[in-house]
Design a protein that fits this description.
The longest helix is centred in the middle third of the chain and has 39 residues. Helix 6 packs antiparallel against helix 7 and helix 7 runs antiparallel to helix 8. It is built from 14 helices and 17 strands. The protein folds into three domains: 230 residues, Deoxyribonuclease I, Chain A (4-Layer Sandwich), CATH 3.60.10; 120 residues, no CATH class; 37 residues, no CATH class. With 462 residues, it is of the alpha+beta class. Helices cover 42% and strands 17% of the residues. Pfam families: Exo_endo_phos. One of its GO terms (molecular function) is catalytic activity. This is Endonuclease/exonuclease/phosphatase domain-containing protein.
Amino acid sequence: MKLMSWNVRGLNKPRTVGRLRQKLREENPGLFFLTETKVKDSKMAGIRRKCGFFNGIDVSAVGRSGGLSMGWKNCCKVSLRSYSVRHIDVLIEDDSEGNQWRCTGFYGHPEEQHRGESWDLLRSLDDMPDTPWLVLGDFNEIVLSSEKQGGRDRPVRQMEGFSAALSDCGLDDLGFTGQWFTWEKGKFSNTNIRERLDRGVANGAWWELFPDYKVAHLQHSFSDHCPVLVNTSFGSSTHVRTWQFRFEAAWLLEDSCEPEVKKLWLSSSGDFLDRLLQVKQGFDRWFKDLRRKKTSTLTALKKKLEKLNEQIPSDEVLGEIVDTKLSMNLEMDKEELFWEQRARSNWLKHGDRNTSFFHRCASQRRRKSKVKFLESENGEVCSGEAEMLTVATNYFGSLFTSSVTGSCSRILEGVNSCISETMNLSLRREFTSEEIWDVVKSMNPLKAAGEDGLGALFIQRF
């Protein structure tokens, strides 16, 4: 099971909500915990559901600060134990293994003078010592001075207060992979501060239950905190899906798209339909190459950002970090446009940049459209492709075969004619190229692509 914790620093803007959805889709956690949502619980519940997490608990922000949310999927049974403006505590029963353990999402008080109240809260939650217990979130504190770079030194008493609370609860740090810091402030070397404020801690029973766990500090392109991902059983298989060719709207954002169209069209031969077919075949090859490059581009940008974050934060390095995050955002914008077309939805036009929603819509539509079996006229259920083809052909063949005999003239005698001869001639005349082009221009560019996969968008643009 994967769990993700993230201080998102506000979900009031559609773009930040879109980035959250994309990260959830990318990492696919079974449970997430968010801090500083800065929205009311009702709004956060809507955001959570649009992310595909229909189960959860949301805590409203107080004014313009705070706000918590924990959402989970149906991969496990979760029961709520308690919650406040600083924590959400649940009991998890893993459906696959039947293991029962606790997970507490924790948000340490952002003000130093109230930090002790957070540690008292943590101690009060330690009421099931024999149950495996994981606590993750933004503690707003460090344990060692080495977990801070830049700015004034952290008072020793503050670090000792945090360490004492963890020790009293029997919680040990889970470690991490990736960049060492989880929070950053300042875009110039003389003002840059980095700290490890977010982490996962667990008691001995949890360590024994999940000996193969892994904690990762993830790369991101917004928020001053990075997501923390806990994988209780590191190592999972991936499913590779093959796609039917269709011209994607996101390709128009590629610099090589228009030159590729011109090159393929000029190198094609034959009539219009033959040339379109050759363009499609060429685009199929171009798309496969683009998909490989796109995956490697985003991966390379993430690796580049990870290496930059490991370097001394000079002005040059910090400027390159900003440029890299902008490039990551551009690649993510392309993916959002890709999933909009897949879902045949117009929500992006209205400001709801919802990659995860579009992906879910496209996946649900694919599942709904798939025919798994058919029943023949004699009541026999068929699931084979050839058998279902025969059943469908016979059914529609008989459906559209007329069984009416005789003339309909007696019925038509009672119908008044409303089409004049002039109107009839106008209706029966050949379509003009102008009329055809008007229809093509009026089509929604992202709707049904047609058999060749090129669709209205391609014709309208090129």
